[in-house]
Amino acid sequence: MVGETGMEGIGMGKKKRIAWMSLVLAIALIAGLAVPGTEANAASKAKKKKVLVVYFSATGTTKDAAGKVKKATGGKLYRIKAAKPYTDADLDYNNENCRANVEQKSGSVRPKVKGKVKNIRKYDIIFVGYPIWWGKEPMIIRTFLESYNLKGKTVVPFCTSGGSGISGSMKGIKAAAKGAKVVKGKDLTDLSSKSVAKWVKKKMK
């Protein structure tokens, strides 16, 4: 027969066991949440990187490529517009004196841009798209890049071309994007959305 003292002992024993079990469960819960929490924080930091996708397109080809980059990054899309729009005659490469040819040969001409990007400071990564004209980026791209303080930002060039590729434009982009980290660009001509997304993912790391 168990007396009152014995009952109290049993009661105290149960309370201690319950207290210990609660403590163990609390520790396990905290430990279990620690790793996912860290991953969530890392993912959150990655998501905080703001992306701007700017492009200049005279015929629409680069516009399509920029759309794919925008879709892959989820960033803000901005079209660079010339204050004086380019006409078909301006782009007649068979005419040595056409506007585009004169600008490209000079290298120092800076066509005026219509409008400005609002609060460009908030963006961390800027993808810059353009067609290749005479092996280089159009001079209006230099106008755009030279118009902003890009210090500390990452600039990712991309282009469309008839076969020249992007290499001939990299020097000009690096010179115009002063203070920015200009990474190796890519010619996205005829690339599928899947291929563009794969390339973008590497540049976003």
Structural features, described:
With 205 residues, the protein is of the alpha/beta class. The protein has 6 helices and 8 strands, in the order αβαββαββαβαββα. The protein has helices at residues 4-47, 61-73, 99-106, 139-146, 167-176, 193-203, and strands at residues 51-55, 76-79, 81-82, 113-114, 125-131, 154-160, 181-182, 186-187. Strands 1, 2, 5, 6, 7 and 8 form a 6-stranded parallel beta sheet that branches. Strand 1, helix 2 (61-73) and strand 2 form a beta-alpha-beta unit. Helix 2 packs across helix 6 (193-203). The longest helix is centred in the first third of the chain and has 44 residues, at 4-47. It is globular. Residues 1-12 and 24-46 have low confidence and may be disordered.
What count of domains describes the coordinates?
Answer: 2
- The CATH homologous superfamily of the largest domain is termed Flavodoxin domain
Order of helices and strands: HEHEEHEEHEHEEH
Quick one: overall form? Answer: globular
N-end to C-end Cα span: 72 Å
- Helical percentage: 40-55%
Question: What secondary-structure arrangement, pairings included, does this model have?
Answer:
Elements: H1 4-47, E1 51-55, H2 61-73, E2 76-79, E3 81-82, H3 99-106, E4 113-114, E5 125-131, H4 139-146, E6 154-160, H5 167-176, E7 181-182, E8 186-187, H6 193-203
Parallel strand pairs: 1-2, 1-5, 5-6, 6-7, 6-8
Antiparallel strand pairs: 3-4
Helix pairs in contact: 2-6
Features:
205 residues; alpha/beta; Rossmann fold; 2 domains; six-stranded parallel sheet; 6 helices; disordered N terminus
